[in-house]
Request: fold
Amino acid sequence: MPRGAIIVDKERCKGCGLCLVFCPQDVLAFSGEHNRSSYDVVCMKHPEQCTGCGFCAQTCPDIAIEVYRQKKPKDGS
Amino acid sequence: MPVSTENMVKVFERPNSLNESQFSYCPGCHHGVVTRIVAQTIDELEIRERTVLVAPVGCSVSMYQWFRCDGTQASHGRACAVATGLKRVNPNLIVFTYQGDGDLAAIGTAESIHAANRGENITVIFINNQIYGMTGGQMAPTTLLGQWATSCPDGREGSLAGYPLRFAEMVAQLEAPVYVTRQSVYDQKRIMATTRAIMKAFRYQVEGKGYALVEVLTNCPTNWKMGPVEANRRLADEVVKTFPLGDLVDRGQSG
Amino acid sequence: MGADTIDKVLMTGNEAMAEAGIRAGCRAYFGYPITPQNELLEYMSAHMPQAGGAFIQAESEIAAINMCYGASAAGVRTMTSSSSPGISLKMEGISYIAGADLPCVIVNVVRGGPGLGNIAPAQGDYFQATKGGGHGDYRMIVLGPSTIPEATEHVMLAFELADKYRGPVMILADGMLGQMMEPVVLPKPVDPATLPAKPWALTGAKGREPNIVTSFYLDPEELNMMDVKRESRYRQIEEQEVRYEEHETADATVVIAAYGSVARIARTVVKMARGEGIKLGLLRPISLWPFPYAPLRAIADRVDAILTVEMNAGQMVEDVRLAVAERAQTPFYGVLGGLVPTPKDILREVKRYAG
Reply:
């Protein structure tokens, strides 16, 4: 079970690639899938490695990434 | 394959102070990062309903289109004068300007310096990318020596075109400013430092402490003619040598 | 001091216009020293804070007009003043104020020009004021007072018109009007709380959609729409806000067209001429934009000549000729350099066309 996950808003992604470089877990890659603005959008290549650290989202200039993290045991029911 | 977020909590999302429209910036442009930090700060301080932004001339000329707060647009360089007018007649407003190096430190030098010198209770976000972005890559007052630009095709020559203008240092000489800092957003650590600096600058305004300037060293992949990753490296390796990072003035701590 | 309580006072034009501004509900004044309008700035520095308004001696005329842009955008009645070279500096800001549909009152205490010129009274800024001194398609209501009491009334009126039509309004005075003293009955103060609401103002987006004040419309269709909308307001102004005064024109064979201080001198000339049996009248444009074309045209049909007299090389005369066309002679008499024409000088000119 991965500790975190991200959701990329494909239409906001401009394929700049900054998030790929900033991800400490090598989770991200270009998907080869192009959005309506013809940008090659980013996807999770290794979702199982995601820790939900949010570095990718912090560095994304287009706020194309939402970050999720596993609920801590004390948070959960 | 769809990503599962089952049993997870959202820890990062679009700030509420922004609407749904997309930024018009080029891919990899740091303007988006700083704009997001500003919006997040407005959220955290819960000041959206009394914030007025003053957009400059340049790539962020129509930034009011992305915010869910009141906004205006100033003539080239005059954002600090416009902000002064807004704040003086309605001190309850939280007023910030967001200006590039050409706007703030070339054509608007007088307005920028004097608003700082009067200690206007406003927040000035200064985007220093060492180039004129919107007009297509001409030399800025902050262009590094030797740096190529479309209007200095042989690189900036100090004896002819002057030297990179250290605006934060100039403002730091004044008595009135409460907070003057230079930050960058080329890596995670710097993004966090910039986030803290912008928060402090706005917080000081909310507390009525006075003028704050946050200079942010940013990239311009398009006009620097390099990829975003390489541009980030240039900031970290070269630009910081001319424009050292860190706080220059912080008089807001006590009281 | 008693300007707040005493209604009839002896004041310089500059001070009277400042006091009228405060009484009109102006709560933001930004200016920069330049002769011959300094007393206006100085008066504001003392009295605006007392009225609870904002006063700043700005770092330049450019900064001052842009502070006005900000204060006006916040919904407050706003004013600046300067003299010719300083007004040139403000022109970019005035264009933005027009483009962003912001009310603002600008006083120009005109001095000799071009360039640094001198500090004597002149009317060389007529073109700049009435034909769009800044860039782009915009118009500005321009009022040309000829006495200090009228200048105070014009300040009150200017604020009303600026709010009503959402644009810049200029008082085109001159060094003489600014500097001389005259008894003035000051207008009754307006309570800013009773002024019409400005729902477009930047007051914080609380419980409503964000308000945007801008002159920037990248899409040509959108800019066209904004410009056309503004143009229709300009047509409304042309229909409703023409102001002028006719003096002894009913039986006149020659009429002087003059505004501001020159019109005041021209009244003396009319008296002198009438004393000599010359049927001389005066048409005094009060609103310089919108210009009283129709009244001038009507007079032109029944007189031999309309003599335009100005303290410049011939500026308003172009509007007079546009109005009159070939209906009557349209000679011009002007003095330059900050000189003021004497009644005798003008009467001599009148006699060339009378009888």
In short: Chain A has one domain: 4-69. The mean pLDDT of chain A is 93.
